[in-house]
Amino acid sequence: MKDYTKKSKEMGEVKLFWTWSSPYAQRIAWALKLKGVEYETMYEDLANKSRLLLEYNPVHKKVPVLLHNGTPICESLVILEYIDETWNTTARLLPEDPFARANARFWAKFSDDQVLPSAFHAYVSQGVEQEKAKDHTLQKLDIVEKQLTGKKFFSGETLGFLDLVFGWIAVYLDIVEETSGIKILDKERFPLISAWKENISCIPVIQETWPDREKLIDKYRHMRQYFISTAAVKNGKAS
Amino acid sequence: MKDYTKKSKEMGEVKLFWTWSSPYAQRIAWALKLKGVEYETMYEDLANKSRLLLEYNPVHKKVPVLLHNGTPICESLVILEYIDETWNTTARLLPEDPFARANARFWAKFSDDQVLPSAFHAYVSQGVEQEKAKDHTLQKLDIVEKQLTGKKFFSGETLGFLDLVFGWIAVYLDIVEETSGIKILDKERFPLISAWKENISCIPVIQETWPDREKLIDKYRHMRQYFISTAAVKNGKAS
């Protein structure tokens, strides 16, 4: 990849408020690296959020937040489009054609409104509820699978916007499976998503920023325990 | 407004699958009219969806769907951006500046993820549940109110993307109040949203396409009855 650092420095100061275990934050780190944007990482402990995070994202109080020359941008899909429009001279994430752009936005919304919440539900539940959430996730993934017909990446022959959006399937689904004891990404049912996972994990920028598997498993195991015990207390199943 | 019809005809055939009582579909009709795009209205009876709607929006099976030269585009926010990018020579809906665009997308997402579902919940519930949903809606609207500080429209001095997105507050909230017996848009609590409602209702394109109040009330009264009885059956409160 060319060195775009000089150009990106002229564009001012960039900070990314994130935590390394968030799939939403991860896609922003990928986009900035793909664009060659130099940025400062502001690590957030979500159990003890910083004053700055609450100031910059007062509505949702969540990572990721991109701070560009002191101006905050929130919501990961919004940030991805901002990055693409601001560092717009090369490595475009979204295609140029309006219909292809609409298509990418449609599936990004499908990822975040339908597939990711469903997989999250399977991750933080147990028993019958977990089975239902798993089935729901599989049905959503059946739809995603079809989008890869005849393609190496969601965007076609090269990595793009939708690959970053669906990147959580490549990195985090495996961790969800490992920590919650369910199998979701079966190679026979999802041959195209499985092949895509291999393709995306070979991209240098993605490889370089892939979170440590053991650390992720440890973190996700603890988070699951926390969510399940919180739900049990809420439902009156524990004191 | 200038006559952009000739130019829009050169852009091919446009059809809008919609129903007149849907706030999501209404924003698309507004956008097409603002752009001067000639289109054919394909009215959908949501109790008996057409074969074409199911073919063009197989994932969500919902209106609105925009069909442009035979290609379907789904999800109202995605369609709005498509319209803005395709008929791009005039009356831009989104601002040019990347930060202002990100800001518009952030609040559009807030409308559709947070405020609209909350108001819908208040509309289709009763008793304590309705009171809770109403309070939730008021809190979300407090946040929206602040966005209008010092502005005539959400986009500034002229109508834009965010005004079309939040347009449901101007047209449908009144109908929700009337049919579900709750007051949400109190002028003392929401002076800026109330003033904006007056401003947007004076725009000719909005005025021309404002749905008939009595017809809307009748439709929304029946829909509420349907949702409440369906929920009662689901909860085992009715046979």
From TrEMBL, chains A, B:
GST C-terminal domain residues: 97-226
A Pfam family of this chain: GST_C
UniProt xrefs under PROSITE patterns: GST_CTER, GST_NTER
Top-level enzyme category: transferase
Reaction(s) catalysed (UniProt annotation): RX + glutathione = an S-substituted glutathione + a halide anion + H(+)
EC number: 2.5.1.18
The UniProt record lists the keyword Glycosyltransferase: no
InterPro entries reported for this sequence: Glutathione-S-Trfase_C-like, Glutathione-S-Trfase_C_sf, Glutathione_S-Trfase, Glutathione_S-Trfase_N, GST_C, GST_C_Tau, Omega/Tau-like, Thioredoxin-like_sf
Highest rank taxon of the organism: Eukaryota
Keyword Transferase (UniProt): yes
A cellular-component GO term for this protein: cytoplasm
Keywords: Transferase
Domain GST N-terminal intervals: 12-91
Any GO BP: glutathione metabolic process
A GO molecular-function descriptor: glutathione transferase activity
Family of this protein: Belongs to the GST superfamily. HSP26 family.
Protein name: Probable glutathione S-transferase
